[in-house]
């Protein structure tokens, strides 16, 4: 009996280890999320073209489940978090387009010109991938460093050159821009945003009132 007990416990440990090994890695989950977002867009296009009877709510639910699971995962490294934010921004842009299109259908005001304009707007107006708020760029070095790293990653994603970027020069430039904008706008903080628009990096600074 004792031998059977030890054998059973050993088998349970092996089974638990196998379950852990079977869990998808963060990179695998991100790849699955990217594939599901692409599939969701195709399925919504099919639905809006009249080739499907109901919206792809199953795929939509699967995408939202993965997004929520990864949002709660504190083990993501910087590159993984950046990729995750990019995918969420893309998904959010698609959701806004689909919501407007479905509302037009329900209200009986769907027009080809309006849908075309909405799609163009969704393509051109990229949601910010990263936002940072800074009150004193001279002392908030950690915030400026995160801003710099995010900008470099965005440029790499778009295939833009990063060889001429250095943190010391970037820090001085941001500190100067922050001081000038605070004086001009009479604000206490400056809001920085990084987005990808038309395949290029958009880096903006504005007063945070």
List keywords for this structure.
single chain, 209 residues, mainly alpha, 3-stranded antiparallel β-sheet, 7 helices
Can you lay out the helices and strands and say which pair or pack?
Elements lengths: L1 H21 L3 H23 L8 H15 L6 H30 L4 H13 L5 E5 L6 H17 L9 H19 L3 E9 L2 E9 L1
Antiparallel strand pairs: 1-2, 2-3
Helix pairs in contact: 2-3, 2-4, 4-5, 6-7
Largest sheet: 3 strands, antiparallel
Q: What is the strand arrangement across the widest sheet?
A: 1-2-3
Shape: globular
- The oligomerization state is single chain
- Kindly, what is the distance between the CA atoms of the first and last residues, rounded to a whole number of angstroms? 73 Å
Q: How much of the polypeptide forms β-strand, as a percent range?
A: 5-15%
Poorly predicted segments? none
In percent, how helical is the residue content? 55-70%
| Class from helix and strand fractions | mainly alpha
Q: What is the number of beta strands? A: 3
Q: How many domains, in number, for the residues?
A: 2
Task: Provide the gyration radius in Å.
Answer: 23 Å
Overall average residue pLDDT: 82
Helix and strand run:
HHHHHEHHEE
Helical region count? 7
